[in-house]
Amino acid sequence: MTRVAAVFLYGLALAGAAVALAVAGVGDGPPLADPELPWWAIAVGFAVAELCVVHLEFRRSAHSFSLADIPWVFGLAFATGPEFVIGAVLGTAAVYAARRMAPIKLFFNLSQLAFVGFVSVAIVREIAAPEGILEPETWPALYLATFASGVLTIACIAGAMAIAEGGMPLGMLKQMFGMDGLVTITNTSLGIAAALVVAIDPRAVPILLVPAVAVFGIYRAYVSERQRHEKLEFLYEANRTLSRSPEVAEAVEGVLESSLGAFRSEIAEVVLFGADGAARRTTYGPGDEQVTMAETDADDAIALARLVDGDQAVVSLVPPLEDARLQALLDRRRIRHAMIARLPGEQRMIGTIMLANRFGIERGYTRDDLRLLEALANNASVALQFDRLEQAIVQLEALQEQLRHQAYHDPLTDLPNRALFLERVREELATGARIAVLFIDLDDFKIVNDSLGHDVGDALLVSVARRLRNSVRPQDVVARLGGDEFAVMLPDVQDSPTQERTVAERVLQAFEAPVRAGSQLVSVHVSVGIAVGAGSGQGDELIRHADLAMYQAKSAGKSRFEFFEPSMATAMVRLHSLREELARAIEREEIVVEYQPIVLLEAGRMTAAEALVRWEHPARGLVPPSEFIPLAEETGVIGALDHFVLQHACHEARRWTEDGAGQEALRVHVNLSVVELRDTELVSRVLSVLDESGLPPDQLVLEITESQLLGDTRDSAERFQELRAFGIRIALDDFGTGYSSLSYLHSLPIDILKIAKPFVDGVHRGEREAGFVSMIVDLARTLQLEVIAEGIETPEQVDTLRRLGAQLGQGYLLGRPSASRTGRFERRRAPTA
Asked: Is the pLDDT of residue 821 over 50?
């Protein structure tokens, strides 16, 4: 519910209470005394009293003092209850309507007036003496009824203010009660005295005008003196704020904050002009909005300043204005009325000060307000010395330039960041020029970061930025987009791709030599994607195309460059779609686990099986692991995927044991991802799955590839030792393809070596290939490790491997992966040559 609606319901409740009192017959009897006054006479009395009103304003609200207590006493004494309330409501409504009071305020004020009127009638009729107003016993009843009406009125108004403005200060409430009590006692005394005179001789009414006018004059004088005191106090506080504030911005903020209350305004604003013609504004309001020394439209600021840059030091702005530009400015800023004054300097006008949207009964600024604003502007101009202002503006410009640089540059390399690079690309495209964007990504930067530390990684990025700047032309723009991603814009390239190709080749050559990162030399290579655009195309689209080309370069082998082709976008859309669907594939039971036999080559029987994950997509068919495993690692699904495979494999291996009672138990091999390997909870999770499935630990083999061990051998060794302590075996997959194979055998607790397929492929073709495999087999025998040859596809390979002493084999020739849903695998013999 809005606050306006809440105030309306509040007024409706008061009106309902008034109607209830009327229906109950409050005040239906004859008046207390003669002469009896009709409702229209009461209405005239209230209208005249409301015209003689003095407004005392508090911030956004105002309290009115009038002579209404006099017709109030007359109505209670000389009219029936209903005619008194009707006359009071109609007379007051006529004056409020003439003042164009807002409908919601008019409704609320008349509702509370009717309610309070009936309450006063009830009090008088309950307490007053039967003989009427001429008897002293009736006078306290009139005092009490009138005073109660004042208290109820303030209470009703306070409730409305609390609803409309979210609260009412206790000090303001006390002040209103105090002033209203004093005024009520005075006016009621005057009203009772006048009523006594009228009851004795109605011809004495004209004589009563003299004390009434005198009282009204006293009220006006008091309020005028109070407001003058408040203005002097405001100017004093403003001058003190200006003189004591060390910074111009702080001084201006202090003056504006106090001006909002002094002028009861919604918006207070100061605009300062620099020597360079730039305009900066500090604004308070509307509401909690606040802007400090923000650069603003100079044309708008000058248009407002011209209103006071002449003989008039201060002007009042009341729409509609003749100047269409200024009217549009006021409409845009929701300014209903305003006053503006100039801030004069020694040689030129240094700025303007403006107050707008005044609160209170008088919705506009008076001459007194204009004179007060002019005095404030003159005092502010003296305090805001010209040299002090210029110094502040220079400091502000330097700060803004520093902040702008920080906002548009990478803090590590000081290169333009993504936002600035995109802005430069868009600006160049807007000229109609043909430009090229090179998207550059470091190959395997994560390995450097993980193995050598983030400090070395940061130092490496700084060196990479320096080499890139030295590899391009002076007019080219080099930027760091984030992480290990960089970009280069080549402006105004020719139709042929010669320039882009030359720069890309120069960038690749720049990283042929190791890069210094702190005290270390690091071998770094980059992949580059190139996209070319012309005309008013979208800059972000051009960067995205270069990014796609870079991914194509990585997929094609890294340390190379590729030009963007439209087919790459189609492939990326498919990749993104797969990424979204993979997150839900496990829930939809689209992930299946197949098992490939591992065979004892001499005996020809199966001793183990490797669990291999597959994705059976309902629309795309079988998605190969090489396509969705990297996606799983990128999206964070790999952890859940690994856990699913481990659970499924352990339960399946347990069923093999149960189905093959009396036969040798088959081991199951499960691959570990790098995410699982680095998880500190790996050991406890593996043991939990074994316990849940009932599989003995010595029937589980965990496989890890060499590439996953880079920079993590110490932590990996500790986890492997824990796992082996429970009987779980560790296998090193793809052995021989990495750079540190022998060092892993020395530092890691390994049980099984799996000879990589590239060595097995050529094992029967020549002595050199066979020598490699023989060396691995001899090394494993020396270290008491099992050896499994992977990728066996021909009988000749089986025969050669047997001759070389390889114990176990795995490959399509020995058995293709299958789901093994029917239980134990068929034991089969390895074929011979």
From this structure: no
